[in-house]
Amino acid sequence: MSGAWASWERRESGVAGARGSALLLPGGMCRAGQYDELMAEPALAGVRLVAVTLPGHGGTPAPRDTGVENYARLAAECAADLACDVVVGHSMGANVALEMAASGAFRGPVILLAPSFSRQDEAVFLRALDRLTPVLGHLPYSAMLKLVGGMAKQSPLPPERVASLVADLRRNDPRAVRRAVHDYLRYLDRHGTVAPRLCEAGVPAWVVHGESGDGGATGAERHTLEACPQVSVVTLPGPSFFTPNEEPALVAELVVEALARTR
Predict the structure, then answer these.
(1) Domains of the chain as residue ranges with CATH
(2) Residue 94 burial (C-beta neighbours within 10 Å; 0-12, 13-18, 19+)
(3) What are the pLDDT digits (tens) for 209-236?
(4) Is the pLDDT of residue 59 over 80?
């Protein structure tokens, strides 16, 4: 592979050309291993799954441009080179998938797990950290990375799996996290809300949110999405923090449904 994405960390399962292929984008600060549970789902045994780590996340080298648009461009090249029919993204990775569709760089179905459509949808603590960085630099993120273990304990995942995910989170460079989060929030601010961009993309899309936890949508954004005939909104009961890990069977069903829409 000669694309700019070729050096990205990736995990694969399934065989090429079986029942289709899906590109999996982890959440912010996470690595490709976030999708291990999904790759183990029996419903996807005949599907090729490719999970990649976005550069600069999980301790990987950061690119010069950590903007969502650049990540979307590179991920679209990855999807095209690997002949992926569907893109699944979680949290910040979901926003990259959304921009892939909105920019026209990817024309297949997208499954967005816990995306945020505007700055106010994002966690208050993340917005607060971004406001502190002009004065304190990367130090707020250094502190956050030390505390992620406590935050992750809210997840219903087994303790050993939480420990594995937390270990990947703690591998992050706080300087890279500061840049990526700031560029991500600026991206949301440029659009005010990206919900209309998803509708205007015209591709089959599924938006999955928990009643609380990671990501969110305002009432107006939800109304916008529910008015789009090609967008399906799924609300999980209770909190959701690591959707691909906590709800792999549901995500697998959506991947199968999305692949059916490509035929």
Answers:
(1) 10-260 (3.40.50.1820)
(2) buried
(3) 988 877 789 999 999 999 999 999 999 9
(4) yes
